[in-house]
From TrEMBL:
Enzyme class: hydrolase
Stated name of the protein: Beta-glucosidase
Keyword Glycosyltransferase: no
Keywords, comma-separated and alphabetical: Carbohydrate metabolism, Cellulose degradation, Glycosidase, Hydrolase, Polysaccharide degradation, Signal
Pfam family, one: Glyco_hydro_1
GO BP terms: cellulose catabolic process
Species lineage: Bacteria, Pseudomonadati, Acidobacteriota, Terriglobia, Terriglobales
EC number: 3.2.1.21
Active site, renumbered: 207 (proton donor), 395 (nucleophile)
Length: 489
């Protein structure tokens, strides 16, 4: 893919003087670049002129400063400090030190041309013990962050829960406790109301599926529980209820015109072959494979097959709760990494999930199978099945085994390949009328990758965790070009 870029051009693009932290040079490609037309590589796939190009992060993965400004402990502090739970025993104590460095990082964002930035609020910075009196210092940080983003011409998108439950609430049963749903809504309503002058898009939760399944069933994420089916289904119900209550609480406190949504890691059901029977199978699979997450949020009911599968382990719920869960959203954010391939099948479900063969190509994270068509089918099916009119890709990105060359460069050609192909498929959907209004690349910075610690890097900016030095990777230059051209070629 680079064979039409000469060595000299590459050397100039990544030029020696463009050292780390030399912010204006984050994406030097436009400086003195040749006129694009003569060397353009075939079709240019353009996005709508108001398309929002962004990047995403999450509180515990970047902020550090875990003992500062009155923050209370969260389940991730506890989990990461428990021996044996994370790669190398890594914790988020320092992470990217974003709490202190956000102003410089915003200059990096500006240099890339980002139009929007998605961050999450740490609940235990606002309510150190989950409920009770708010901590003004915690709120100040997010106020200042939002102000600084706006000053740089970058729209803040705010997630209210990216997995860092206050430890005090876990001590009272976490999401197994019905009261946690209400506590979340109180926190979300309060916080969104306070930030609403500057933030116009709020997401209740990030990836309900992941913290329910990986945190509470598999036990590989905080709080590290391995609940049985019955307890897990009830916990799952409290999570979706917490989302619905939060939607209502947020609407009650924010300025008119504020939009409310969520960011869910849907199973992006993708037909194995694009033929009518497999496409139909993917439609059916979308509802069933997301039954206790986006499906119940959209429809206000658990699917018959979901309830049948659980039998006596099905959650207890009231009709009123189901109404709350389906509180209408202004937008749906979906995080897309790997596709879930499905095929037509004559079973009761009408489809079958096709597990990837062991030879299936993946990124540095073994789970991250490369399947660009997932970012075409995911949003397309969400739009068709639930008539969703405003969507965002709230996360998409890839881990690579990045390393700095002696000259201080990172040539993450695999990440560039990944992004180019996913963005090509995204453009395919958008150009067909799928209403995706923006894209948030995961992630701006290398950061704390949960149980994988600092080993798996997802940033387009390399972070030396010993010095906190930031160095733009080749993928940063690629993304800067995409944004500047509003197109992927
Ligand atoms: C997202 O999760 C998260 O929102 C974000 O915080 C995270 O940093 C990013 O993606 C990259 O991972 O342990 O091998 O079984 C994506 C969904 C679900 C993918 C949990 C990894 C565990 C895989 N993730 N899964 S494994």
């Amino acid at each position: 893919m680079f064979n039409n870029i000469s060595r000299r051009t590459l050397a100039r693009i990544l030029g020696g003087s463009a050292a780390a932290l030399s912010l204006p040079r984050v994406g030097f490609a436009t400086e003195g670049a040749p006129a694009p037309s003569t060397h353009s590589a075939g079709t240019t796939r353009t996005f709508p002129s108001d398309f929002l190009w962004g990047s995403a992060t999450a509180s515990y993965q970047v902020e550090g400063a875990v003992h500062e400004a009155g923050r209370g402990p969260s389940i991730w502090d506890t989990f990461s400090h428990t021996p044996g739970k994370t790669h190398n025993g890594d914790t988020g104590d320092v992470a990217d030190d974003f709490f202190h460095r956000y102003k410089e990082d915003i200059q990096i964002m500006k240099g890339l041309g980002l139009k929007t930035f998605r961050f999450s609020v740490s609940w235990s910075r606002i309510f150190p013990t989950g409920t009770g009196s708010p901590n003004p210092q915690g709120l100040d940080f997010y106020h200042h962050l939002a102000d600084a983003l706006l000053e740089a011409g970058i729209q803040p998108f705010c997630t209210l829960y990216h997995w860092d439950l206050p430890q005090t609430l876990q001590d009272k049963g976490g999401w197994e406790n019905h009261d946690t749903s209400k506590a979340f809504a109180d926190y979300a309503g309060y916080t969104a109301g306070k930030l609403s002058d500057n933030v116009h898009h709020f997401m209740t939760m990030n990836e309900m599926r992941t913290f329910v399944d990986v945190g509470n069933r598999e036990g590989r994420h905080a709080p590290g529980l391995k609940l049985d089916d019955k307890r897990l289904a009830q916990l799952n119900h409290h999570v979706v209820l917490g989302h619905g209550l939060a939607v209502r609480a947020i609407r009650a406190t924010v300025k008119p015109g504020t939009k409310v949504g969520l960011a869910e890691n849907i199973s992006a059901t993708t037909p194995v072959v694009e033929s009518p029977e497999h496409i139909e199978a993917a439609h059916k699979a979308l509802r069933e494979e997301n039954a206790s997450f986006l499906t119940v949020v959209q429809e206000g009911r658990y699917t018959d097959l979901y309830l049948k599968r659980l039998g006596g382990n099905a959650p207890k719920f009231t009709a009123e709760e189901m109404e709350i869960i389906r509180s209408p959203l202004d937008f749906v954010g979906i995080n897309i990494y790997q596709p879930m391939y499905v095929r037509a099948d004559s079973s009761e479900k009408g489809y079958a999930v096709v597990p990837p063969p062991s030879s299936y190509p993946h990124m540095f994270s073994p789970w991250l199978n490369v399947g660009p068509e997932g970012i075409y089918w995911g949003p397309k099916l969400v739009h068709e099945v639930w008539k969703v009119k405003e969507m965002y890709i709230t996360e998409n990105g890839a881990s690579s085994s990045d390393h700095l060359t002696p000259e201080g460069k990172v040539y993450d050609t695999d990440r560039v390949m990944f992004l180019r192909n996913y963005l090509t498929q995204l453009q395919r959907g958008v150009s067909e009328g799928v209403p995706v209004k923006g894209y948030f690349l995961w992630s701006l910075l290398d950061n704390y990758e949960w149980a994988d610690g600092y080993e798996k890097r997802f940033g387009i900016i390399y972070v030396d965790f010993a010095t906190q030095q930031r160095t733009p990777k080749l993928s940063a230059e690629f993304y800067k070009q995409v944004i500047a051209k509003n197109a992927v070629s």
